[in-house]
Design brief:
- The structure is a single chain.
- This protein is of the alpha/beta class and 289 residues long.
- It has helices spanning 2-12, 67-76, 94-97, 100-107, 115-123, 208-221, 237-243, 255-284; strands at 31-34, 37-39, 48-52, 55-59, 84-88, 110-114, 142-144, 149-152, 155-161, 170-178, 181-188, 226-229.
- It has one domain (24-283): Ribonuclease Z/Hydroxyacylglutathione hydrolase-like (Metallo-beta-lactamase, Chain A, 4-Layer Sandwich).
- The chain has a 7-stranded mixed sheet with strand order 1-2-3-4-5-6-7, covered by helices on one side. Strands 8-9-10-11-12 form a 5-stranded mixed sheet.
- The protein binds zinc ion.
Amino acid sequence: MLLRLLAALCAVSAPLLCDFQPQWNRPIAPYRVIANLYYVGTNYLASFLITTPEGDILINPDYEQSVPVIRRSVEKLGFRFSDIKIILISHAHDDHAAGCALAKKWSGAKLMVMEGDVAEVESGGAHDFQYHQHWAPVTVDRVLKDSDKVILGGVTLVAHLTPGHTRGCTTWTTQVQENGRLYHVVIVGSPNVNPGYKLTGNKEYPEIAADYEKTFRVLASLPCDVFLGAHGIYYDMDAKLKQLGTGGGNPFVDPEGYRAYVAERERAFQTELEAQQHASSARHAPDAS
Ligand SMILES: [Zn+2]
């Protein structure tokens, strides 16, 4: 019964994670986003390579089946997968993190994960509050706390805890320089309330609504020039990619798009929270008859 229900939910809802989704794993040509930051993900799963003179950083190995796709993209750009020294994730759902074990094995990199997501990564998603996931467990080499810095070869990434979507959901920020200008980069972890998430009376995750509220405060506070995220759809990747190199400036520099996205996602969260609170107070109202 549970399996049938999960299968039905998977069929109707693209963002719901259950199993490997091959339609999310199609290769696309890798490209430079800006400065030393490259896109090496699939058609739907965003992965980023940040290169430094002392080795490279990979954000999001995605599914295990994505790792060969990412490796080919890294090599097409002229880099080596074995030069990846640090692996990071947006959050511990299978479509961003199930490939951690294989990516670590192939690269020899150190895996660094936010505290709240460590149990998931080390158990292959076994304890997620919403999903029953089964992917290759992997040891986390460094446990990150909110605002911790990851530093390699002159690049500094800051791990911002943006919880709710998962307990350790992480929004990464860094700064890059291009043509003498400094740009603030934000890679959004996920502000989304997935179908089926209980924002009220959630026994598995009682503080979930307060955590989302914290996330929106954090996201609103971050300076952003280059707007990126765990999925290309967060930041209209396909449309921006069509504009890239057409001479009109870098389309990924989109501070207004970032502000609008955060505001729209916060409204969506508030609407869902109010609907769930309304439904639960209606359930608990004394019978008038
Ligand atoms: Zn997710």
